[in-house]
Amino acid sequence: MRHIEAGRASLARGDWEQAKRAFDAALATEEAGEALEGLGLAAWWLDLADIVFDARERAYRIYHQQSNRTAAARVAVWLAWDTSAFRGEHAIATVWLQRARRLLDDQPATAEHAWLALRSGVSALLHDGNPEEAATLAAKAISVGDAIGSSDYAVAGRALHGYAEITAGRVGEGRRTLDEVSASVLAGEVKDYVLTGLACCYLIAACDRIRDYDRATQWCDRLKESCKKWGLRPLFAVCRTQYASVCMWRGAWEEAERELSAATDELAACRPAMTGEGFARLGELRRRQGKLDEAMALFDRAGTDPIASLGRAMVAFDRGDHKAAAELVDRYLRKLPLQNRTERAAGLELLSRAQIELGDGVDAQKALEELRDIAARAQTDPLRASASLAAGVVFARSGDPASARRHLEDAVDLFQKGGAPFETARARVELARVLGRLGRLEPAVEEAQRAIDDFVQLHADLELSRARDVLENLRTEKSTAPQPEPGNQRGGLTVRELEVLRLISIGLGNHAIAQRLFISEHTVHRHVANMLTKLNVSSRSAAVAQVVRQGVAGDSC
């Protein structure tokens, strides 16, 4: 027992090497379950996977043979986590959780019940995408923690509960819960290193779901400090992966790359099954940079990670394959229950855009309405910005540039307020297109140029190329547009007919005009026929000449 007590004291100090030596010494004289369990925990912190599995499986067998059901269940929960984190074998991890649940049936409330509820809740949230089940299990962990007087489990349970609430779209309730967790952690109420790290990770992940990056930054900094101090390498690597999202959002792409590269290297060495998210986020960075082939290669390395699944759909959209993008994002969304609201948001934005590009206004509007409902429930600026951008694009492609302008202006303002230069610039490009269609060429050129300036600083080459094309088209239209004279009227032409006439004047045919205005060729043909009748001319060129000669113009020219 002397070596076992020494090992436990070393674990309490965070001296993992000394703890391992003490438990090894204990096992040299007797193979006790307590010594094996202690060795497994020391090895877990030291990233010694082979020792972790060997020690914990042996400990489980001994506890089971001794009919020590609570101890066996405790180790089974650890083995469930290990199997998932080290090996990525989620089905086997589920079996271990079921085994622990069976062992604890009819047992009085103990810390093991809270531990099982916590890990089962995480599995429900992250692997099954079910925040309601996760919230129920988190509530059980809180209840048990309170009943046995364990603030560690109660606080960790509240952190998971807040994370689940935010994922379900109940952002106000989730934030209040997480604020309570923050106060508890800062007050030093949580002593257990593992549970402290988990609580902080849930806080950061919840902030990431709603893009509350100010809070995420604060908790990343705090967790990184603790991880460095105590040598909590696995949690440090996960924290760096999450922190990279903050850097990406704020345009600090070089820092994001450093964090992701370091984190994936660390996880590859200590938790290889957990590298998927790092590769997926690095793939998203490459996509934003316009390096689509590299992005796809990283998404492939990430496997079934949800970020990678959505990333593949985004790459298809970037390549102009809107059908593939719609199919891939629909597949992504089918895996997420409707109650998994905040995780669905990014997919819904992309789906609405892909569907409207395919001419499917009904499905585009359906996706948009779900996204707007999520944003309204969440009441966070980044999600409202996402919904406004999607609405602006849908209205623009549906032939309502006036409504599109208002939504896109809101998107620009909200993204800019949130310190997101890439998203702001994307919204500016869409706004520039709409302003051009409304004939407001000067502000359209200004928005396009500001987007270009941001993309240049970010080295977002693909988006930069697109923004420059928009700017070039706007300048061409501006230089060739019929110039109105004071007092002239529209000669009976509608705003849309004047738009069509202006594009005819720069040499575009019906197909090109339809693509530019996002309407059908049949509609273009009808506008041309109406113009010829109103102007009493027989050809397109004659219509242009008459407009120039008479100075027929309006807000759209």
Description:
Helix content is 80%, strand content 0%. Helix 5 (69-87) packs parallel to helix 7, helix 18 (322-334) packs antiparallel against helix 19 (341-357) and helix 19 (341-357) runs parallel beside helix 21 (381-397). It is mainly alpha-helical and 557 residues long. It has 29 helices and no strands. The model is unreliable at 484-489 and 552-557 (pLDDT under 50). Among the domains are: 380-480, Tetratricopeptide repeat domain (Serine Threonine Protein Phosphatase 5, Tetratricopeptide repeat, Alpha Horseshoe); 495-550, Winged helix-like DNA-binding domain superfamily/Winged helix DNA-binding domain (Arc Repressor Mutant, subunit A, Orthogonal Bundle), CATH 1.10.10. The chain has helices spanning 2-13, 16-29, 33-45, 49-65, 69-87, 90-104, 111-126, 131-148, 151-167, 171-186, 193-209, 213-230, 233-249, 253-270, 276-289, 292-302, 306-318, 322-334, 341-357, 361-378, 381-397, 401-417, 421-437, 441-458, 461-480, 495-505, 510-517, 521-535, 540-550.
